[in-house]
Each structure stands twice: as C-alpha cells, then as structure tokens.
Amino acid sequence: MFEVFHEMVNAKVEPNVHTYGALIDGCARAGQVAKAFGAYGIMRSKNVKPDIVVFNALITACGQAGAVDRAFDVLAEMRAETQPLDPDHITVGSLIMACSNAGQVDRAKEVYKMIHEYNIEGTPEVYTIAVNSCSNSGDWDFALSVYSDMTKKGLLPDEMFLSALIDVAGNAGKLDAAFEVLQQAKDNGIRVGIISYGSLMGACSNAKNWQKALELYEDIKSAKLSPTVSTLNALITALCDGDQLQKAVEALSDMKRCGLSPNTITYSILFVASEKMDDIEIGLMLLSQAKKDGVSPNLVMCRCLIGMCLRRFEKACTLGEPILSLDRGRPQIDNQWTSLALMVYRETIVTGVIPTMEVFSQLLGCLRLPHDASLRDRLVENLGVNTETSRCPNLFSLVDGFGEYDPRALSLLEEAASLGIVPCVSFKESPILVDARKLLVHTAEVYLLTVLKGLRHRLAAGAKLPNITILLPVEKTQVSSPEGKKTVNLAGRISQGVGALLRRLRLPYQGNESYGKVRINGLAVKRWFQPKLSSPFSGKPEELSSSLTRLGKGIAHQQRNIRTGTLSLY
Predict the structure, then answer these.
(1) 335 CB-side CA count, 13 A
(2) How far, in Å, CA of 70 to CA of 98, rounded?
(3) What residue ranges of the chain have pLDDT lower than 50?
(4) pTM score, whole prediction
(5) Chain centroid to CA 13
(6) How large is the angle between the packed helices 441-460 and 407-419, nearest 10 degrees?
C-alpha cells in the first residue's frame, strides 16, 4: 500500500485528502495504528486539510489498538480545527466500539449522548454498536432507551439490531422480554431470520429453560428456516442443563438431518451431560458418532469418558469381580472399563492434546489393584518364591507394579513426565526429592512407585541407593484448647494416601505426614529390595517375573561387569 503511495509521489502525482484517507483507513484495517498516524503526519506536513473520513479512520485505528484515550485526542483535534468538524454516526460508532473493547461501558454510554447533542440520525449500525456495548453487563434499560431513540428517528431495526437487543435481554435474565422483542418485530412486519432466532435460542440456553428452547425450535421449523450449528448447539445446551439427555441426542440427529456437521463444541456439551447422568452407553455412542463425523477426542471428552470408566472400575473392585490376569507371568488388569479408558487416553494423546493432571490421575485410578488379601496372595504365589509371606513381608518389592498398580501405570507416568503433565524426578540428586504437594492421590502414589522402580534398576546395576525425601501437602485448621485457639497441621487425603502406601509396602520411613515431609533411608530401600528367601527359587526360570530374574539371577553378573568397567551407571 505504501509502495503504491511512494510510486504515486515519485510520478509527481500530488496526493489529495482522499488518497490520505484511503491510506489511513488501510492502516486502520490492518491494525497498524503507528503507520496510520505516520500517514496523517505526512498529510499535515503537505498542508492537506483532513476531512471527517480521515479523523474517523484514525479513531477506528486507535480503537482496534486499544488506545482509547488517543481516540478521544483525535476527537478533540477534530473539534479544534479552524472550521470545527462535527462528529457523525461513524465517529460515534467508532468511539463506542473503542470504549466497549476496552471494557469502559460507562464511557461508551457517555459517547452515545453525542447522538442527541449533535442531532445525529445515523443508521441502524450505530445503534447496534451501542446496544452491543451493554450486552455483557446486561443493561436492559439502556438497550431499551437506544431502541426507543431509534424508532423515534423513524429507523426500522434490522436483524443485526434485533439480535443484539435479544442478546442483552438474555444476559439480563429477561427471557420473556427477549421473546417480546421477536414478536413485536413480527407484528411490525419486520422479516425475522435465523440470526435473531439464534440469539433467542442463546437466551433460552443462558436461562436454562429447555421448554422454551424446544418451543422456539418448533417455531424455527414452522418458519422453514435453516438452523445453524450454533443455534442447535444452544438448544442442546439448554436440554442438557435440564437433564434432558435423550432429547439432546435427538437434537444431534436433527442436526445431521439438516445437513449440518456437529463440531467439537456439540460433542463436548453432550459428553458433559452423559457424565453428569453417568450414562456410559450414550457416552460410547457419542464417541462412535464423533469418530464418524471426524471429530477427534478433546480434553472434555477424554475427562468425561475416563471419569465414567473409573466409577465402573471401582464398583467392579468393590463387588469383588475378577479384574486381574496373570496369564503373561506378570500382573495386568483385564477389565473392559480399564481398556476403554486406556483407548480414549491414547486417542487423545495422538491428536496432540495434552491431558490435565486430573484426567491423568483418573486414568491411573483405572489401573489400581484392589487391596484384597486373596489377590495379594496370588501375586506372591505367581513369583514362585519358596517362603512364607509372614516371615518375609516385603515380597511385593519383587512384583512388577509392587502389588499396588498395573505395571503399565508406571510406564504411563514416565510418558506423562516427558509430556510435562507431571514433573520429572532427578536420580542424580541426593537425596532424591519427590514433591507430591501439587499431585493428586493416584498420581502421587504411582509417582513414588516409579521412583522405586528406577532405584531397583540402579540397585541391579550395583549403584548405591540415595535417601528419598517426600514433600507432602498439609492442611491447617484451628482447634480449641485451654490456652485458646491453636493452629495445627493435618495430613490431607494425598498425604494419608502416600503414608498408607508406604505402610502396605512395609517400607520404613521417618517423619510424619502431618509435618509435610517424610524420609526414606537408602539402606532401608536396599534391604527392602533384597528380601531373605529360604531358597533362591522354587519355580522354573520362565515362570518368574522379569524384574525378579534381573534382581535374583543377573545381579552377580552385573556386579562383575561393574568391577571390570564394562557397565556404565545411569
């Protein structure tokens, strides 16, 4: 644009006010406020007198850049001309929009008064801008006054104005008034289109009035209007908020029959409702439909589905249903809800979405082994170790997953650390620091187990094990005492979970969960990893877990490699 301007100047063609006006307007549309004022400075240096178009373009540029005060400076400069220029409807609209974008609603109302001060008739557009400025605040009285001013000047509202007015009524919680606006427009012979109906549907959604939303949808069909995706999304939202999930699913089918493509917002609304109603069947149906429509799982869908899977998995564990498989020689959960949760999580990761800590902790919950005595006995029997559990209580140090979680949980946590979902732990520090203060309970437990897994590898390589320091969250509360109220620390759910985990593992530690810190001695960890067995093994080598084989049969070979310098430590 400026290249053309310079070519024009080099060709000895003298730019006039229209040239500069077009140049400044182009800068305004591109959001280049500095260049707009640069062009204005050139125009002034050439003694070209600016007109109202130039000043309006400058005000628009300021508004888009958020420079509200500078926009009012331009207005003052316009009024300070030798022959002062009065603002027109474009000036007023640009200033109101600048104030509105900056969140200065009261200032926008003051600017609107210029309509009366300078007897500006204007167009429906400037009145629409004025109504939009009070939409978020829901100032229904101001919106009605603007509507009254418009009709007094003999201007008929267009659909954009009606839509803006309905939006204000909806945000003000005046649903009946919003319907009255639409009916009054019809009575006055104004053609009402889908834009106004869409705004009214949004008002029904905000008011959580699914009955009115359904009535309006029937009106849309009777008027033979083609609904938009956003209109039907608002209808589905109203139905879901009213616990009308089945009707919402029917609206989804109507959307497809109309030739519309449901989007991520559509399915997110429905998934949230299915989780609220705990209807996994509809959730699975929605997942299948979303795949057919080319909608990839997002964070909302992932959270809802995994949450429903977790509830059903925990119920299966409570009822004592069989969930554990030892067919592959290592403990692995064999449950449909765990498999579904893992599938949804994996599909979400593949799309590039990074799950939250909450979603990840729910997934780990689907991989948690029940605290059942008979199940734990099966895990010990699967080791093929010839000893009695009562004489050697720390045999779970030899089990993959340590008898607490499916071993896949530990692999998932390592992946989550690489994705930035959970912090990485450094094995180079001494003591090793495990900060569980911002973790959720399942994540904190698996995090600690993953650290123990890493230390087991180091021990197998002959390395010295460092101490472990675990930082835990504490809750403060006030208790009454003879001396008055005292503030004491209490161990929260996460701290209690970590403490209970260590006690189940029979792994000794120092400190108290309510102090916010516990310590595990490296020597205690080493002893825990090396239980005293009455005989090395009673089963066949192929029946033993891979970790036991590494620790029991391979440790001497690895120590020899270390002494000869053929094995590097990590």
Answers:
(1) 28
(2) 10
(3) 389-390, 536-553, 566-570
(4) 0.81
(5) 56
(6) 100
